[in-house]
Amino acid sequence: MQLPLLAATYLTPSKDSVIFAFKGVLSMAMALYISLYFNLEKPYWAVVSAVFLQVRPEGGLVVEKTVSQITGTLLGGVFGMFVLNYLHAAPVPAMGVLAVWLALNSSLSAMVRRVNFIYFFAMASVTPCIIVLLTMSTPELATNQTIFSISQARITEIIVGALCAMTISLLVFPKRLKTSLRMQAKTVINRTLHYVNLELDPEGSHEDRHQCIDEILESLAALNDDSSAVAYEGPQGPGRARAASVICNKTLSVVAVIQIFGRLQRNHPEVLSGTLKELLDVLRSDLKKIAETSDYQTCYELAQAQRRKLLKISKQTETVTPLEARLLKTAHEMLSEMVLILRANNTLIKGHASVLKAPEHLPYRDPLIGLATGLRTFLVFNCGALLWLYTGSPAAIMVMIMPVIFSIMFARMPPAVVKQALKRMLMGVAVAIPVAIFYALNLLAQSSGDYGLLILVLSAPYFLGLMAISQRSTLPYGLGFCIPFTLLVQPANDMTRPLSVDYTLSAAIAIVVGVSLLYWIFRLITGPGVQTMQRRLLHATRRDLQRLIEQEAPAHWYNARMGDRLLRLTSYDKEAASDARVITDLGLTGLNLGHTSIRVRNLVQTVTDKDLSVILKHWQYVLADTFIEAAKGETTERFRQMCDSVLSQVRQDANGPAHLTLIEGIFDRLDLTFQRTAKMVREKNTEVKSH
Question: Does the keyword Transport apply (predicted)?
Answer without folding.
Answer: yes
